[in-house]
Each structure stands twice: as structure tokens, then as C-alpha cells.
Description:
The protein has one helix at about 20-25, and strands at about 5-10, 15-20, 40. The chain is an alpha+beta fold. The two termini are about 20 Å apart.
Amino acid sequence: MPHYEYLCAACRKKFSVNLTVTEHDKDKVKCPKCGSTKVEQQWAAFYATTSKKS
């Protein structure tokens, strides 16, 4: 499941959320601190977890 990072424009709190691509496209993300929907998605490092052993 993809990991998204956000910054709340109202209270300036940074937070992260795990969402499916479908959830990310249709749902409004709310700040866990103040409940505002005025959030900006931040750039985050991408990582993938696989079951293949190296």
C-alpha cells in the first residue's frame, strides 16, 4: 500500500497516511491534529517491499 506524506496548511503539522491508489484519488485527507482538509501532499521517498530474497 502506498505511503503518502502531507503538510496541513492550517496548523503546519506534517503527517503520513497509508492509502490505496483508489482511496488517494477519491478521498479527502484530513489533518489528524486539527481536522482541516486543507492539506498539501509532500514529496516522499518511494520504497517497495517484496517477498523475494536477495
